[in-house]
Structures are given as C-alpha cells and as structure tokens.
C-alpha cells in the first residue's frame, strides 16, 4: 500500500510552489488537490504532458519559474527571520482557510511565536482606506483596542491608514494582532511601516503567501484580502471609497459566509461612500467593539443596551404617567378633564394628582391643576414639545 510522500517532501514541494503559482490560483489549487504538490512540481520540472487547465503558453511560464526555485534556501531564509512555513493539514494550519476551496493558499509563511490556528479561532478583521481621515484612524484604533481588551485578535493588512491604526490600537491595548502581507514576510511593506511590522512580528504574527524576499503587486494586494476574510470570523470596514480594496475584503467575507460590518461616517464623505453602500446591502452597522463582539462572538456576548439618561418621569407608574401626560403644557385643567383625557375615573385621577404633587410634578390652584415650572422646563429640554 502506498502511503504517499513523506511530510518533508510535501512541505518542500509546497514551499517551492509558492514561487511558481500566484496566490489564489484555483487551477493550481485543483492540481494540488488531485495529484498532490510533489507530483505537480515533478511534472513542472520534467518534460511531460502538461496538467489539464493550462494553456501551452502558461505551462511554459510555470515551468520557467519552477526551474529556478530553491525551496531549501527559502525555508532557511524564513528561519533566519524568525519564521516558519505552515502547510495545509498541519497542526498550526487554520482550517477556516479551507473554505477558500481550490483558491486556498498553497501554504503560509509566518513570523511570530503564537499559533496561527489558535489565534484565528477568535479573530476579527479591521480594514479600510489607506488615505483615511482622522475620524477613520480614531475609529479603527478604538475598535481594535476594544476588541483586544475583550480577548479578540485583530487582523489587518499592515498598510497605511486604517490598517496601521488598527494594528497600533490592538498593540497599544496590550492585545494580539496579525498582519497579512502581500509580499514576503521578511520584507516591510510599506517601508514606512518597518517599525510597526517588526513590532507585530515580535508581539503577534506576520503572515503571507509569498516566499521570503518576494515583492507586492496590485493584484497580490487584492488576492491577499481573501486570506484576511477567510481567516477571521468577520470583517469590519471603517472607511472605504467605492473602489476600495477594503470592500473586496468585505465581499470575500460575504461569499464565505462570514459577518460583514461597517462603521458609518458623514454622508458627504467620499471615504465613507463605500461603507454606506455596504450597509445598504447585507453589512451590519457597528459603532464600537461591543457591537462587533455581539455579532461575531459566542452566545451571551451582548452589547449594552443603548438609551438616553433616565429622567424622573421614567420612574412613574403607567397610570400616573398617563395622568401627568393629560395635563396641558400651559394653563390649568380640572380633575374631571384630566381624568377624561387620561382614560380613568375622576377619583383615580385625583389620587394620582396628589401623588404627582408630592413628587414635584404638578401643583394645585383652587379647583385646577397645572404642571410645575420645573416639569415644563424638563419637557422642553427632553424635546417633548416642539
């Protein structure tokens, strides 16, 4: 009985194929599923009939790439950078990535000490515009800090703007954060975030599909977003224009059955237009970490009830509140008239009026009753009269 190639051989082949196949290559993913990484690499290196689904031109291009790969050197390079290579099926592999089907990563290059699989179990993506506003940066940092304080891992893309603010917010709260890069994990991109990415590698995790030293391209940024969406329980978009890559992350999350959330902004802001379009669809409006956790968390993790301050009138019994509401805003009324408007008997109305008098809501003048000045002012202050 054939047991298949040893794990080291499979690992070596997958590491090599991260230099051959582009991220998200579903045709290549089908080859891996049907014949395995070792056989795919062998056929690419040998002068044999090409695998199904590839044109002659593409096959030759893949063969040219495969001829120059040195996976042993890449594995050594990532070890020197304090990292490792994680393959599907290994204990550290996050199973949610398997939801990507044939488009799942060939493997992941990882820097950092924690287990990626464990961290992914309780993680949320916070993404948004690179050229974000001060409001967007503040909201991203606050959301990330709140999530971190509640024991959630904040995942983002390491970019300028919302991504960077989310990473810093989580780190500032002493929490966990993961940066998913569109280049080799030994590279700092953008360069201005070299210190931030280094700090994430020390305190959290830096993850990528591309081997050490590889560079980002526009298409790789978009394809990277599917990993952010699949890795997490839900995606929060803080600020995004109509053509923002953050919306691509949200769309991937929706396709994968993950939660998608958006933070509203000014209706006049182009950087919030994409978020508002998301909220007009299946996105859920959130304003803080508690509301995010209520959606993606376990049963019982609910956000506090949102309501205005309790005022003295809120504490009245229903019958007394009806009698109070029956008094005119100006002038006086008789007990009989108040009873009629409150839908009760005159005796009941009189009893409740004396109760309201003792509480300072009304005052009696002969046969008439009227609201006290303090009650009238409080009604106006609460917007009860227009």
Written account of the structure:
- With 386 residues, the protein is of the alpha/beta class.
- It has 3 domains: 1-69; 96-296, Rossmann fold; 312-381, Arc Repressor Mutant, subunit A (Orthogonal Bundle).
- Helix content is 46%, strand content 12%.
- The protein is built from 17 helices and 12 strands.
- It has helices at 7-17, 26-35, 37-45, 56-67, 71-80, 116-120, 134-149, 162-172, 194-203, 218-231, 245-255, 270-280, 289-296, 318-326, 335-342, 346-358, 373-381; strands at residues 83-86, 108-111, 123-127, 153-156, 177-181, 205-208, 234-237, 259-262, 284-285, 333-334, 362-365, 368-371.
- It has a 9-stranded mixed beta sheet with strand order 1-2-6-5-4-3-7-8-9, with helices on both faces.
- Helix 9 (194-203) links the parallel strand 5 (177-181) and strand 6 (205-208).
- The longest helix is centred in the middle third of the chain and has 16 residues, at 134-149.
- The N and C termini lie far apart (85 Å).
In short:
The protein is α/β, with parallel strands linked by helices. Helices cover 46% and strands 12% of the residues.
């Amino acid at each position: 009985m054939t047991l298949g190639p040893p794990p080291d051989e499979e690992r070596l082949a997958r590491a090599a194929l991260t230099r051959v196949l582009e991220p998200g290559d579903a045709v290549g993913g089908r080859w891996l599923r049907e014949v395995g990484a070792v056989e795919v690499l062998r056929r690419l290196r040998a002068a044999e009939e090409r695998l199904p689904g590839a044109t002659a031109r593409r096959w030759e291009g893949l063969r040219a790439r495969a001829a120059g790969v040195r996976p042993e050197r890449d594995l050594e390079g990532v070890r020197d950078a304090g990292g490792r290579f994680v393959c599907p099926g290994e204990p550290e592999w996050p199973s949610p990535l398997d939801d990507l089907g044939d488009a799942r990563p060939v493997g992941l290059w990882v820097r950092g000490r924690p287990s990626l699989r464990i961290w992914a179990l309780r993680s949320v993506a916070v993404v948004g515009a690179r050229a974000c506003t001060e409001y967007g940066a503040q909201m991203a940092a606050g959301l990330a800090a709140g999530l971190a304080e509640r024991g959630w891992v904040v995942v983002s893309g390491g970019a300028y703007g919302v991504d960077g603010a989310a990473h810093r917010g989580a780190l500032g709260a002493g929490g966990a954060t993961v940066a998913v890069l569109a280049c080799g994990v030994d590279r700092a991109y953008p360069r201005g975030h070299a210190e931030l990415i280094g700090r994430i590698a020390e305190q959290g995790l830096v993850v990528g599909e591309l081997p050490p030293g590889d560079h980002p391209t526009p298409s790789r940024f978009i394809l990277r977003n599917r990993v952010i969406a699949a890795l997490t329980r839900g995606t929060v978009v803080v600020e995004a224009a109509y053509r923002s890559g953050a919306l691509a992350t949200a769309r991937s999350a929706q396709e994968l059955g993950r939660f998608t959330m958006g933070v509203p902004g000014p209706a006049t802001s182009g950087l919030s237009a994409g978020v508002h379009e998301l909220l007009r669809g299946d996105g859920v409006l959130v304003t803080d970490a508690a509301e995010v956790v209520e959606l993606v968390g376990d049963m019982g993790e609910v956000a506090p009830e949102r309501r205005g301050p309790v005022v003295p009138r809120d504490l009245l019994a229903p019958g007394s509140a009806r009698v109070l509401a029956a008094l005119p805003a100006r002038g006086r009324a008789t007990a009989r008239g108040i009873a009629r408007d409150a839908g009760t008997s005159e005796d009941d109305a009189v009893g409740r009026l004396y109760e309201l008098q003792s509480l300072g809501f009304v005052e009696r003048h002969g046969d008439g009753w009227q609201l006290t000045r303090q009650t009238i002012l409080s009604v106006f202050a609460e917007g009860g009269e227009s």
